[in-house]
Amino acid sequence: MDYYCSYRILFSLLFFELFVSVSCSRSLVQTQQIKDSVKNNSLTALFVFGDSTVDSGNNNYVSTMFKADFWPYGIDLPNHIPTGRFTDGKLTTDFVASHLGIKDYVPPYLDKTLSVEELMTGVSFASAGSGYDPLTAQTTRVINMDKQLEYFKEYKTRIEQVIGKAKMETHIRNAAFIVSAGTNDFVFTYFTLPVRRKQYNITDYQNYLLQGTRNFVQSLIDLGARKIGVVGIPPMGCLPVMITLKSENAIFQRGCIDYYTTVAKEYNQKLQTVLQTVMKNNAAKHGAKVIYVDIHEALLNIIHNYTNLGFVEWKRGCCGSVQQAQTKTNSRHSTTAIFVFGDSTVDPGNNNYITTALKSNFPPYGINLPNHTPTGRFSNGKLPTDFIASHLGLKDYVPPYLNKSLSIEELMTGVSFASAGSGYDPLTPPINNAIPLQKQLEYFKEFKTRLVSAMGTEKTESHFRNAVFFISCGTNDLAENYFIAPIRRYQYNSTDYQNLLLQNARTFFQSLLDVGARKIGIVGIPPIGCLPVIVTLNSKNAILQRGCIDEYSIVAKQFNQKLEAEVKTMQNNLLHSGIKIVYSDIYEPLLDIIHNYKHFGFDEWRRGCCGSGLLELGYLCNRHIPICPDPSKFIFWDSIHPTEKVYYLLFISFLDLIDKYL
Ligand SMILES: *[C@@H]1O[C@H](CO)[C@@H](O)[C@H](O)[C@H]1NC(C)=O
Ligand SMILES: *[C@@H]1O[C@H](CO)[C@@H](O)[C@H](O)[C@H]1NC(C)=O
Ligand SMILES: *[C@@H]1O[C@H](CO)[C@@H](O)[C@H](O)[C@H]1NC(C)=O
Ligand SMILES: *[C@@H]1O[C@H](CO)[C@@H](O)[C@H](O)[C@H]1NC(C)=O
Ligand SMILES: *[C@@H]1O[C@H](CO)[C@@H](O)[C@H](O)[C@H]1NC(C)=O
Questions:
Q1: Domains plus CATH for the chain?
Q2: What does each C-alpha distance from 554 to 239, 487, 525, 617 come to in angstroms?
Q3: Ligand 2 centroid to 266 CA: how many Å?
Q4: Is the CB of residue 304 below 6 angstroms from any atom belonging to ligand 3?
Q5: Which of 38, 452, 561, 635 has the most CB atoms in a 10 Å sphere around its CB?
Q6: Which strand (E) or helix (H) includes residue 630?
């Protein structure tokens, strides 16, 4: 569980006091009383400003990497819809609005489809990644606090046109305002970028931010706000992102870093003084009420008492290293494109365009994609390469090359040449009528020729130099060709077969370098003995006694070890060339997920979600077959391929490598 996942508890502790009395105690028993009192006060609306703690989706409408409109964000919302809220469910402000009897969700202002009624009861102007320091929003490319005020002014004008000036002003006077920001200023700007640290020592930076806060609150009052709650900042030293960035051994020795927490505490103390001053200065003239809302102590309590409160884990976010991923912005990656080769793990639909039995462009495949569209991806949703492309700021879906309608622009930012059923062994693709790696490479060359004629040789070369190449292949060679089809097993023992694959893999990587690839990521193969189809075909009692078949997984592991060594050797031989070629393991991460499936929120690992889950794959997994009610509770989607959730978790496990090397 992480900071964001703790909102539900935080909510109970924090916000009841806001609109009643500053001295009101935090007891939950008082809820009803507070509600009554609030009703008496007749609060009309809730307006929200600040950062990701209160952004309900404005960033969906701006061009930034700080987005959360994709899974697994929103997994606990109705229909698991990711809305742009940076958590698994509702935000604190949603709970506040519910309990004030206003509405259940505070929508983002930038959603242009909101009705006047929805606008009237309140919206959020907040933007994840924002802060009181203007540099913060500039770095993260999100909506800064001044711009949020501008939007509020625009909002007032819109409402005035509907209900007239006098009513609009009363409406604003009776509304509650919540401002929550400051964390990003410290975490991302002061402690991460060098600029501010050169200008200010920590005391002066706190004061600088407080000046920003004071100005912001004063502007709200000038615009008519009368009930304002300003939220302090959390114990920053305990935020997963901070621990990861600042611990010497961030993986094994994780603990709160007191220094950052002290800074936050000092800041909160000063903030209270500042707000009291603002309130005093405005009380007589405007009757404005400005209060400080503490989350510091409440959150610290949750962290120290996490087991009592029912949390299992606090040192890592509940979404892997997602927090860290969020700190990356587009500008860090100069990647121009992503090109993908391999098998069904990365084929987004090339097999739709060829004659093969291995297809998945029909329901229930793709059931969790937008509009439930089956695209030819062998899963319920996105593939790992889709997540990678999003992360690199390129595109949200890597399309299949064989779709002839793709524009040159779409092709340029990346495309997949992969084909379900393909492999390193030239005998593997023919078993499935899949596109062999050599042919995939020819398609790439064809594409390169098109690009050269469109933009010249020099630009094309430079475009490819900054592109990432991904290869995910090998599972079919072992799981299908070697262990199921008869030929290869008669010719080779498993060691020799691994060596054969390795030799072909090496040749393929070399061909990629020859056509201009400079950044290559190679994915190993999974513990194939745990794939449901392998378990079914090789267990004595496949229905009742299902367990991973180690004998098969061991061969996969041996192959991975050789592949990794081979890739290291290639990299060492290319040391000063600027070429990066890296191996990424999926074996251990997937095994970890299988062994700890409950911890990751899964209910089932022994069978796929489609049908019985024992054998269904491709045409056997079709619209007439029932599926499990909730694919996110399953590790496998069909009898071979993981669900989108597992692909996402695997993507998270690649992040470090991607950010370091590619
Ligand atoms: C709200 O107003 C009603 C009647 O106007 C009153 O009976 C009730 O005590 C008030 N509630 C609070 C908490 O002030
Ligand atoms: C920061 O600098 C100010 C002067 O600008 C000084 O008064 C203060 O003591 C310094 N604080 C720290 C923590 O060094
Ligand atoms: C843990 O919770 C108890 C009450 O539930 C509280 O008294 C105590 O202060 C909390 N511990 C810490 C370290 O905050
Ligand atoms: C092929 O690409 C075009 C252009 O992006 C797209 O509109 C179309 O839906 C794609 N076709 C399929 C079958 O996905
Ligand atoms: C496979 O055969 C080779 C000789 O071709 C031998 O060196 C190796 O030990 C054998 N491996 C296994 C696992 O039997």
A1: 5-314 (3.40.50), 335-661 (3.40.50.1110)
A2: 38, 21, 11, 24
A3: 14
A4: yes
A5: 635
A6: none
Contact (Cβ atoms closer than 8 angstroms) between residue 108 and residue 57: yes
| Ligand 2 center to 292 CA (angstroms) | 25
Say how far apart CA 565 and CA 474 lie, in whole Å: 16
Q: Ligand 1 centroid to 206 CA: how many Å?
A: 41
Distance CA 361, CA 492 (A): 35
Give the H or E element holding residue 329. none
| Residue 499 beta carbon below 6 angstroms from any ligand 5 atom | no
Taking phi over 0 as left and psi of -120 to 50 as alpha, with beta for the rest, 182 belongs to left
Q: Which atom of ligand 3 is nearest to the CA of 300?
A: 14
pLDDT at residue number 490: 86
Give the helix ranges, DSSP H, for 247-309: 258-286, 296-304
Chunk the chain into consecutive blocks of 10 residues (it has 662) and report each block's average pLDDT, rounded to whole numbers: 33 30 26 41 84 88 72 61 72 76 89 91 93 88 94 95 92 90 88 83 95 96 92 79 56 66 91 93 84 70 47 38 34 79 97 93 94 95 94 93 94 96 95 94 96 92 94 94 84 94 97 95 96 86 81 95 96 90 94 88 91 86 89 94 93 84 78
Ligand 2 center to 267 CA (angstroms):
14
Closest CA to 186 of 123, 133, 230, 149: 133
Q: In this structure, are residues 307 and 292 in contact, taking their beta carbons and an 8 Å threshold?
A: no
- 3-state DSSP assignment of residue 293: strand
Active site residue 286: no
Q: How far apart are the C-alpha atoms of 585 and 557, rounded to whole Å?
A: 10
Cα(74) to centroid(ligand 4), Å? 28
- In the numeric block, which tokens belong to residue 545? 């006694």
Cis (ω within 30 of 0) for the bond into 72? Answer: yes
Other C-beta atoms closer than 10 Å to the C-beta of 170 total 13
Token reading at 341: 């080769």
C-alpha closest to that of 232 among 213, 208, 256:
213
* Cβ-proximal residues to 428 (8 Å cutoff; 6+ apart), any chain: 421, 422, 434, 476, 477, 480, 481
Instruction: Give the residue from 379, 554, 542, 561 showing the smallest Cα distance to 483.
Output: 554
Does residue 405's CB lie within 6 angstroms of at least one atom of ligand 4?
yes
Q: Catalytic pick from 344, 472, 632, 639?
A: 344
Question: Of 386, 638, 639, 653, which one is the catalytic site residue?
Answer: 638
Q: Which of 38, 40, 41, 100 to probe ligand 1 with, by most ligand atoms within 8 A of CB?
A: 40
d(CA 240, CA 221): 35
Half-sphere exposure of 455 (CA within 13 A, CB side): 13
Q: For residues 288 and 278, what is the distance between their CA atoms, to the nearest angstrom? A: 9
State yes or no: is 638 an active-site residue: yes
Closest CA to 584 of 496, 518, 520: 520
In the residue annotation, 94 being an active-site residue is answered as no
Residue 561 beta carbon below 6 angstroms from any ligand 4 atom: no
